[in-house]
């Protein structure tokens, strides 16, 4: 792969991780958070999403295709990239490594989550509060989902920091430091929302 082409692929990978994948993840977490208000609240919120016109087409164009590209190219990056110890601090190199690790884990987690929900729906199972409650009734699955949610919120938040740098938005050390604080706060907020949501099904 030529350097110019690889540069463009990496830019596209970075962009899709934020728009639309990151935006969808954020929306998904807040919809799930409605479960803290009970079964009826959650079922009403998901019912609204199910009424989107041409839902299957929208899901493929807005979610699945961008997600698959981001996931598969991300796995390629994870197994070929090396930390840039000369440019970034030890902390940033830890974040670099965690980004790759969570990315690989999320490929497994998301595939399983889609199997348990969207594929089961296609096979005739009704996706609602009771379905999610039955999934996380298993302590192992509950733990798996919590780890998956925290991995996803970290991957998005840290990925946003990398996106701001790679797209030249935060170039100075000071702007990158501010971006670190902002993305860390985002990680905490989304993690609390996501974990509270999944525990609401227990």
| Order of helix and strand elements from N to C terminus | HHHHHHHH
Largest sheet: none
Distance between the termini: 48 Å
Sheet/helix structural class: mainly alpha
The shape is: globular
Question: What portion of residues belong to β-strands?
Answer: under 5%
Low-confidence stretches: none
Mean model confidence by pLDDT: 93
Radius of gyration: 18 Å
Alpha plus pi helix count = 8
Number of strands: 0
Blueprint of the fold:
Blueprint: H1 3-18, H2 21-33, H3 39-50, H4 55-80, H5 90-122, H6 129-136, H7 139-166, H8 173-199
Helix pairs in contact: 1-4, 1-7, 2-8, 4-5, 5-7, 7-8
Question: How would you describe this protein?
Answer:
The longest helix is centred in the middle third of the chain and has 33 residues, at 90-122. The protein is 81% helix and 0% strand. The protein contains 8 helices and no strands. It has helices at residues 3-18, 21-33, 39-50, 55-80, 90-122, 129-136, 139-166, 173-199. It is mainly α and 202 residues long. The mean pLDDT is 93. It is globular and about 50 Å long.
What's the quick description here?
With 202 residues, this protein is mostly helical. Helices cover 81% and strands 0% of the residues. The protein has helices spanning 3-18, 21-33, 39-50, 55-80, 90-122, 129-136, 139-166, 173-199.
Looking at this protein, list some descriptive labels.
single chain, 202 residues, mainly alpha, 8 helices
């Amino acid at each position: 792969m030529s350097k110019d082409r690889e540069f463009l692929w990496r830019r596209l990978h970075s962009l899709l991780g934020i728009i639309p994948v990151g935006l969808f993840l954020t929306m998904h977490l807040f919809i799930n958070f409605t479960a803290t208000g009970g079964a009826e609240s959650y079922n009403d919120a998901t019912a609204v999403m199910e009424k989107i016109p041409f839902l299957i087409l929208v899901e493929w164009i807005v979610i699945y295709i961008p997600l698959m590209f981001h996931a598969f190219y991300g796995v390629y990056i994870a197994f070929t990239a090396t930390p840039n110890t000369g440019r970034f601090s030890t902390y940033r190199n830890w974040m670099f490594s965690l980004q790759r690790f969570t990315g690989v884990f999320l490929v497994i987690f998301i595939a399983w989550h889609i199997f348990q929900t969207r594929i089961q729906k296609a096979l005739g199972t009704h996706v609602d509060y009771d379905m999610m409650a039955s999934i996380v009734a298993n302590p192992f699955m509950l733990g798996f989902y919590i780890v998956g949610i925290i991995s996803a919120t970290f991957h998005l938040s840290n990925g946003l920091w990398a996106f701001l740098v790679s797209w030249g938005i935060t170039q100075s050390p000071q702007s990158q430091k501010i971006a670190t604080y902002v993305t860390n706060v985002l990680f905490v907020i989304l993690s609390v929302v996501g974990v509270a949501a999944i525990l609401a099904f227990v």
